[in-house]
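Bench notes, afternoon.
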Amino acid sequence: MFALRFRAVFLEGLPMRVASVLLSLLCLSAVAEEVDLLDERGLRRARILCDEGDLRAGLSLLFKLTRQGNTDTIRSEARESLETMGFTPQEIFKLEPSAMSPGDWKPLADRIGALATQKKMISANVLYAQSIIKAVVRVEFGADGDVAVNVQSKELAMALDILLNVALASGAPEYTREAQRLLEKVGIAGPRAEAIRTSLEAGTVPADIQTEVVALTLIKRLQEYRSYVDERNANPDEAVRQQIFRKHGIAIYKYLKKQNPQPKQLQVSSPVLDFWRDLSAPARADEKF
């Protein structure tokens, strides 16, 4: 309303009919702006305000969107944003930011800030563990096309222990679930998890777990290679990369298929494994590229 009063100053001196029309347009514009705050633009605005530390404005808008958003999707996404920031369903239902005193905001801001810091640390731990795993599983290609895989077991144990700690942590469900998915793929889950944790803390990785970690790492490498090999009309430099990745991808696939016992991840069909199976067939492996 202040904005409307401010704009109205500029209407002075205009003919009454013209001023009336312009004032009506200004009112409609103000209403439209208010409605816009209840759609996806308002949701983006609220999230940016919260990210930038303007919690009063950002949270007030998010709570408004949970109750007055113009679609079920907007109301649901606003609620999810509040839950991600650590608000319980009961708080989302009962809290009214406009009724909060200055003394109420400080502990709330501290709580949100502490949770955000915790999530960043957990996220960093997941990325750190993944980078360690990628580094400690080293592939060496021989002149005859054979593949040798060397694993730094102690460092691998440390990385898996970091992921296990994240998987058991609270306060960051999105990263906790990501760590759990990674561990489940290599066989760390259920009643056995605690025994494996003791082994990891001692710097030892059980043989079957290490086999699955190597398989997962190599399959991810095959996925990266495939994205290059699939590319068409590559420039000369990229064509050289394609040729090398094609040769190395076939070698890695054959290495994986020779493993006995077979890693569990190779016992399930997947697009990337099917791609390299077909490319490794004798009729195609000798094709000029």
